[in-house]
Amino acid sequence: MNVISDIICDTPEPHEDVIEKVRETMPDDDTLYELADLFKMFGDSTRMKILFVLMESEMCVCDIAELLSISQSAISHQLRVLKQAKLISSRREGKNIICFLADDHVRSIIDQGLSHVLE
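The structure corresponding to this sequence follows.
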């Protein structure tokens, strides 16, 4: 059987009541674009590794680079991207920059994604 035919209605008549219910609750386009951009942040394996590291412990840039065997400049670049997306935060401790997850929402997103992948 053709896979495409499996997802096409036999009678293409819209169900107006369902459409209206969903239309009332659907976020506006700007919000959906922001959400899509957020999920793009999770589309890079290096960023995912960094986020997993920071789920376990706050870490300085040099420790993240050492743990992941990636240059500090590459880690720093990805940390900037994650910080702009508000997924991580950082603070200075002496000569070190300590990075950590921005909030529990980030942990929840990753936990949910991992649970889904491992099903």
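The helical segments are 16-25, 29-41, 45-56, 61-68, 72-84, 104-118.
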